[in-house]
Amino acid sequence: MTHYPAGITPFYMKKREGVTRNFDLLMPEVAELIGGSEREDDQSTLEQAMQGLDKAALQWYVDLRRYGSVPHAGFGMGLERFLLHITGLTNVREVIPVPRSPNNMLC
Questions:
Q1: How many beta carbons lie within 10 A of that of residue 79, not counting itself?
Q2: 103 domain-assigned
Q3: How far apart are CA 67 and CA 29, in angstroms?
Q4: pLDDT of 5-26, one tens digit each?
Q5: What is the domain count for the chain?
Q6: What pLDDT, on a 0 to 100 scale, did the predictor assign at position 105?
Q7: CA-closest candidate to residue 34, choices 20, 22, 50
Q8: Strand, helix or coil at 27?
Q9: Domain for residue 38, yes or no?
Q10: CA angle, 70 then 73 then 79, to 5°
């Protein structure tokens, strides 16, 4: 899937004409396996997109644009979802390699 509606995507995705420049590889029973998007590289546009968010906590992200950035994109594959797909298991909790509760790891 590509070009999601701009209103349902994160602030850092580049938005043009009401949609974002992004993609998701969707797999049956797994949902999104790989996702990526073009990132907003204009500082003023990024700050406008951050309306309603904690700008102090995200200042480091704005600084990346302030002190130099180039147009770029990012993508990633969810390791657990990939393992879920190749193993045929039904719940992502079954393939997460770390304990899900405190004091539950045997050493």
A1: 11
A2: no
A3: 42
A4: 999 999 999 999 999 999 999 9
A5: 1
A6: 63
A7: 22
A8: strand
A9: yes
A10: 145
